[in-house]
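[Automated response] Your request has been received and processed.

Submitted sequence:
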Amino acid sequence: MKHLFIRRWLIAIVTGLAMAVLFPVSQAAAQAMQEPAAEGSAPVDPKDPWENWNRKVFAFNETADRWFLKPVAQAYRTLTPSLIDRGITNFFNNLTELRNFTNSLLQLKGESAVVAVGRFTFNTTFGLLGLIDVATAFDLPERPEDFGQTLGYWGVGPGPYLMLPVLGPSTPRHFTGFVSDGFVLPSAWDAVGSREANYARALQIVDKRADLIPAESFISGDRYIFFRNAFLQRREFLINDGKVVNDPFASGNDENLMLDDF
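Generated structure:
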């Protein structure tokens, strides 16, 4: 009971912080759209008003990735048999089904909630604790849902694009959802000891980075703009359940950048 009470208070606090961040941000974006830029200065994009800061953080992340994370991921990809690598990815994906279930309920998506329960049950029972994705073979593909999508479902705007140190591309809404999913809402990680969870989280990060290596061949042009477009388009795709209503960055000649892991 005490644990549940604390969770409810945390949800209230996080939601309040989200509102405090998102509403001023929306007002600043609107003001940027209405006020002309000073003569001789570069125009400020209302969807990315912090581009100067974001590019500096992006450069830091790129350096850290180039010298540490990517070499580790390349070694992992080289040494780990593809069957084991796939099993590790499936195992961590299976842990997200509780998140999918909770956020499906919060978005009043009964069918998606049932799918999340079915996937977790099939993969845990028949898929060797999630190492094998048997649910997809049973025509139950994953329906990813997170608290950022829940906020979007209830009308909370995304706010400007934000590049976070280490964590990468985000928006105020997405980051609020990330914090809520990780520390507030029920999670399968709650059943894992702190030390074991740290090791597992490290393995998950390396595994995800290794899975992104083949996708690097699709990157072209300005890397910052590519990652920004890919992330925002992917988030819009998820929030609108599979369709892009409005892509403020992609031009008519741009290719579809909806990459699953960006």
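Summary generated for your ticket: The beta strands are 162-164, 168-170. The longest strand covers residues 162-164.
If you did not submit this request, please reply to this message.
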